[in-house]
Amino acid sequence: MSYVHLSHLFLFQQPTKFTKMSDSFHIVNLISIAGMQGSTSIRNSDYSASKAALTSWSDALRQELQDDGSQVKLTNVYPYIFDSPLFSGFSGLALNIIPLLKTEEVAERVYMAIVNEEDEVYVP
Questions:
Q1: Helices (H), the chain
Q2: Which of 53, 74, 95, 121 has its CA 20 to 30 A from that of 106?
């Protein structure tokens, strides 16, 4: 729910300092590839479901913004596991196929998505 609350703060309860730039910002939701397909091998059905819900909410919000003529951009980023403390000790079988992403690679891809105003980004 933090994504929803924070986005609503920027969109609907704008502090004075954001008022002039209200139509010139970009919301980036760093979701997870797990929201596209749950993985039963690591027992994360609740995590996957929450990411799928965030994807659906983001897509609906993007459409609402477009319908309202807003210039606010919204990008969903779906990374695979990357080298952050969140995943320390993770030992999923997929790591035998795809190594951990570097945090810098994910950050660079997010930056390019903002520059190119992409709706969705899958990393890798």
A1: 2-12, 16-19, 45-67, 103-115
A2: 53
Exposed / middle / buried, residue 54 (Cβ in 10 Å: 0-12, 13-18, 19+):
buried
| Catalytic residue numbers, as ranges | 47
Average pLDDT over residues 75-99: 76
* Amino acid at the residue 60: A
pLDDT of residue 88: 67
> Reduced to 3 states, what is the DSSP secondary structure of residue 46?
helix
Residue of 110, 104, 103, 84 lying closest to 27 (CA atoms): 110
Q: Could you tell me which residues come within 8 angstroms of residue 65 by beta carbon, excluding any fewer than 6 positions away? A: 11, 72, 74
The token pair at 83 is 């080298």
Q: How far is CA 92 from the centre of its chain?
A: 22
Planar angle of CA 109, 124, 5, nearest 5 degrees: 60
Query: Among 99, 63, 72, which Cα is nearest to 14's?
Result: 72
Q: Which residue has the higher pLDDT, 95 or 83?
A: 83
Residue 57 CB: number of other CB atoms within 10 A?
Answer: 16
